[in-house]
Amino acid sequence: MPPEAAESRRPVAGIVLAAGSSTRMGANKLLIEVGGEALVARAVRKAAAAGLDPVVAVLGHESDRVEQALAGLPCRAVVNAQHLRGQGSSFRCGIAAVPGGAAAAVVLLADMPMVTAEMIAAVVELYRATGAPLVLSEYEGVPAPPTLYDRALFPEIAAGDGCGRQIVDRHRAEARSVPWPSERLADLDEPADLERFRAEERCAPTS
Predict the structure, then answer these.
(1) CATH class of the 3-203 domain in this structure
(2) Residue 74 in 3-state DSSP?
(3) Contacts for 95 with CB less than 8 Å, ≥ 6 apart
(4) Hey, CA dihedral for 63, 64, 69, 75, is it positive or negative?
(5) Sign (positive/negative) of CA torsion 58, 106, 167, 4?
(6) Which one-letter DSSP state was computed for residue 96?
(7) Averages of pLDDT over each 10 residues, the chain, 207 residues
(8) DSSP strand E in the chain: where?
(9) Which of 43, 115, 204, 205 is found 20 to 30 A from 78 (Cα to Cα)?
(10) What end-to-end distance do the CA atoms of the chain give, in Å?
């Protein structure tokens, strides 16, 4: 088998960032039920459905409670003891937990309920088709997760003191992107965000 073919068969891991304190929500938003399941479980389930393997959930605030919400799902929970230092520390913690056999990792945010398994799979498909070291999701010009980082970028991530956005800025010329409508960018930070999402979900067609 040619080396490039072998590389294309290597698994792509998933990293679900779920360590935040939810200060603006007033309660742990990761445990809020949307569509009949906890927000964090929804994100992990979609990552697994997209074929990411393994799925690493990076926990922090109320890690015991969040891990309980993931019971029975195909994921490995790791706790970022430095989660209060910001999302960048959780990003690096997740990258460090990716096993050596993975070719790349897709980073997702647990509080983006409009991201689907099909969107995640499309990011991986573009990576396998092009070999780009960085594959972005672009929401009408705004880059946001799911974002794929090739293993070649892992040492740079581990050595940094910033977040994924800085890696994106440095490697934008090498990146490929998948376009999505802006409404898919919605995240749940405040009670008003949750109310709006639930209202839109009730109005969505069932077919």
Answers:
(1) alpha beta
(2) coil
(3) 15, 105, 149, 154, 157, 158
(4) positive
(5) positive
(6) H
(7) 54 96 77 90 97 97 96 96 89 96 97 95 98 96 95 92 78 95 84 75 50
(8) 12-18, 33-34, 37-38, 55-59, 76-79, 104-109, 134-139, 142-150, 176-180
(9) 115
(10) 43
